[in-house]
Design goal:
Blueprint lengths: L1 E2 L7 E3 L2 E2 L12 H9 L9 E2 L6 H5 L7 E4 L12 H12 L5 E6 L2 H13 L1 H11 L12 E6 L3 H11 L6 E6 L47 E5 L11 H14 L3 E5 L3 E3 L7 E3 L5 E4 L2 H4 L18
Parallel strand pairs: 2-5, 5-6, 6-7, 7-8, 8-9, 9-10
Antiparallel strand pairs: 1-2, 3-4, 11-13, 12-13
Helix pairs in contact: 4-6
Length: about 300
């Protein structure tokens, strides 16, 4: 577990390492770049579970109180090669640190939902098995100090992943629209019960449903937080300022916190015609690199967080 420079969290914790690409947003994966530099002969696609790392939050102790921890920033906790039993062990650790927020971001909300269904139906069995090896842990399922999010880099993934995320109980649900590689309309998402909330912001339109794997007392709210940012690295794709403005305005209309992390490698073009890259017929960008691009949108930072709920 390490402190991190990622703007929307404080620490990273990687009980799982490695991943495989599944959508367009994975093309320039920063974690794969890191693995290539530091992992030696081991390939990034070699997904591994690390039981010895389950102790790390306890080793840091009270220093984590009030902090945010990004779980699996160089992997996906819900990767197909990660067993449900191991995910349950991770959740058990999280439940035992109730004063710390654990942020889980996945590109596989379908498997995350499968895990929630499995764990809820087998929660007593899961508790019994875990206590054999970790008797000091207390699994409250799902732990209320979890924020769970999914990556939606374009409209295709928003339409696929958001309806799945909305079925997963959590204190906070969030979207990571990074790298943002296309315009996103979050006001016309079709949920799994085929209700189309046209002209109403998606973040306010979640229909309350009864389901056997929803524990009593959970608030089936909405998307509580939206993060966005541009792509960095040598093969970065430019992000149109209008895409970011659209997300900002959709969140403002629905009173949802909006976090603009970074421009990435490109910023809006000003006065260097020989270096322009056109996003569309009207929008030009210039490549300056992440270290120089900053995070000002129309002269203002947007670094909003959701309120801490159900803690």
């Amino acid at each position: 577990m390490n402190k991190t420079s990622i703007e929307w969290t404080d620490y990273t914790w990687n009980p799982v390492t490695g991943c495989t690409k599944i959508s367009a947003g994975c093309r320039s994966c920063y974690a794969e770049t890191m693995a290539t530099r530091f992992w030696g002969t081991r390939k990034f696609t070699d997904v591994q579970m690390h039981p010895e790392r389950l102790q790390e939050p306890f080793e840091i102790g009270s220093k984590l109180d009030g902090k945010k921890v990004f779980v699996c920033d160089v992997s996906d906790l819900f990767h197909e090669k990660v067993t449900f039993a191991f995910i349950a062990s991770v959740y058990s650790v999280i439940a035992s640190k109730p004063l710390t927020i654990f942020q889980i971001l996945t590109k596989r909300p379908d498997r995350a939902l499968e895990f929630y269904q499995w764990a809820t139906k087998n929660v007593d069995k899961v508790k019994t098995e875990l206590k054999k090896n970790m008797p000091f842990l207390d699994l409250t399922f799902p732990p209320k100090n979890i924020w769970i999010g999914t990556s939606v880099e374009n409209q295709e993934q928003a339409d696929k992943r958001i309806p799945l995320l909305l079925q997963i109980p959590a204190s906070v649900r969030f979207l990571s629209c990074e790298p943002l590689i296309g315009e996103l309309d979050l006001t016309n998402i079709v949920t799994n019960d085929n209700v189309n909330f046209q002209d109403q912001p998606m973040v306010n339109c979640l229909k309350v449903r009864e389901s056997e794997f929803f524990p009593n007392g959970w608030d089936y709210r909405k998307i509580d937080w939206v993060i966005t940012g541009g792509e960095s690295g040598h093969q970065a794709r430019p992000m149109s300022p209008d895409w970011v403005r659209s997300l900002r305005d959709q969140c403002a209309a629905a009173n949802v916190p909006f976090f603009f992390k970074q421009w990435g490698a490109y910023v809006p073009w000003v006065d260097e015609p020989n270096k322009r890259v056109w996003v569309d017929d009207f929008t030009a960008m210039i490549k300056v690199g992440k270290s120089k691009s900053g995070n000002l949108l129309d002269g203002k930072q947007h670094l909003e967080f959701p309120k801490i709920l159900n803690q």
